[in-house]
Amino acid sequence: MEWLGHAKTTFTHSPTTLNLKKKDGSSTDLLAICQESTPPCRLNPFLFNGHVQTMLTSVKVDGPPIFYKRKIFDAEDPAYEGTFAVDFVVKKYTESDDELPIRTTYFKDEEFEDIASLDTRPMLVVLHGLSGGSYEIYLKHVIEPLVDAEGDRQWEACVINSRGCAKHKITSSVLYNARATWDTRQTVKWLRKKFPNRPLFGIGFSLGANILTTYLGEEGSHCMLKAAVVCSNPWNLDAGSLALQRTWLGREIYSKTMAANMKRLIELHHDQISQNPKLDWEKIRNVKYLHEFDREIQGPTWGYPTEGAYYRDASSTDSLFAVKIPLFAINAEDDPIAVNEALPYQEMKQSPYTVLCTTSLGGHLSWFEIGGHRWHARPCVNFLNKMAFEVEIEAPASMTNGEGTAKPGHEMFVAMRRKWHR
């Protein structure tokens, strides 16, 4: 029946997943929550494989009308100096800012201070994909039903824009990479302090999913997020890169397009990034494919000797072993970018905190249904609502100390994951 758009869903998990208690007193577990959250996957039958699904994402439409106000943060960690932008979902307004993405303007300092800080609404922290931003349709399809919910089931949300993305001006020679957890860590710590009563949740898409999973592993049992979802995570970047290079479509369409997007991004910030003496701009401008971009930009910037070393270090697969909060992962088996061979099937079977749902159709951040809605939003929204309103989750230790950094028990793990950053 797949040719009619009826995709098969499969769940990969440990023999016994995390036991959870519902607020009505009954018992459940993480697998049951994930399965209950996942409706049948019925996609547009005319988009009959992952390539067609994925290529439709190049057709830019507006999507749900989400309004944002932006706050600029100064990086606290001197190793990653510069600023980054976080866009907060707000109520509809009439003013506009032509220098920012659609429906986005800046917070005024006094305006932001007036935001209620003692409410108990759940808050979603969102990480977008490669060279994207808060305007991306795939994330707005998840945000809209959460923030537009009525009564006590209404959410707050914010999107952490990777440096230089979403028309944020880079203020140092530091861009970002596939394991750039530092801005996420600072944002979550700030949110915990600013909104002490809000339960925090996370969701990441594509590269943002890889970053979020790595962050969860680094934080371990002290993570300030209560639960998280990751969609189209590439997981094993080395395997994914080799798969892209193996086929004409992978090399000449996907890899070349992603490289072009990243080249445009760094050209927008040339004055700042060119201050990095390790970069050779003649080589950079001759780049055609994504792995070449990573070789010429990410390698020299972060001290990796090869793009393979960068991919192996930045991959989030091994982070699963250190994740200690409920994590729901969603991938399509026909994804031409986050390829099936790179998915962590065996690793998922080793952790009670994680469940992987794979669909036989869907492409990369696509899952188009008839009418243009994205199917992935349905299990994401259902899971987040269940975890926020139906399940009792003990507050992590970090909520009482306000630190939100890796504790001694994770020092070895973090040191291993950051070995190339010395």
UniProtKB/TrEMBL annotation:
Record's keyword terms, sorted: Hydrolase, Transferase
Source organism superkingdom: Eukaryota
Active-site residues per Swiss-Prot or TrEMBL entry: S206, D335, H364
The EC number(s) this enzyme carries: 2.3.1.84
One Pfam assignment: Abhydrolase_1
Residue ranges of every copy of the AB hydrolase-1 domain listed in the record: 122-344
Sequence intervals crossing the membrane: none
Keyword Transferase: yes
GO molecular-function terms, A-Z: acetylesterase activity; alcohol O-acetyltransferase activity; monoacylglycerol lipase activity
InterPro entries cross-referenced by the UniProt entry: AB_hydrolase_1, AB_hydrolase_4_sf, AB_hydrolase_fold, ABHD4
GO BP of this protein: medium-chain fatty acid biosynthetic process; medium-chain fatty acid catabolic process
Record's keyword annotation contains Hydrolase: yes
Reaction(s) this enzyme catalyzes, per UniProt: an aliphatic alcohol + acetyl-CoA = an acetyl ester + CoA
Role, per record: Displays enzymatic activity both for medium-chain fatty acid (MCFA) ethyl ester synthesis and hydrolysis (esterase activity). MCFA are toxic for yeast and this enzyme could thus be involved in their detoxification by esterification.
UniProt family annotation: Belongs to the AB hydrolase superfamily. AB hydrolase 4 family.
Protein name per its UniProtKB record: alcohol O-acetyltransferase
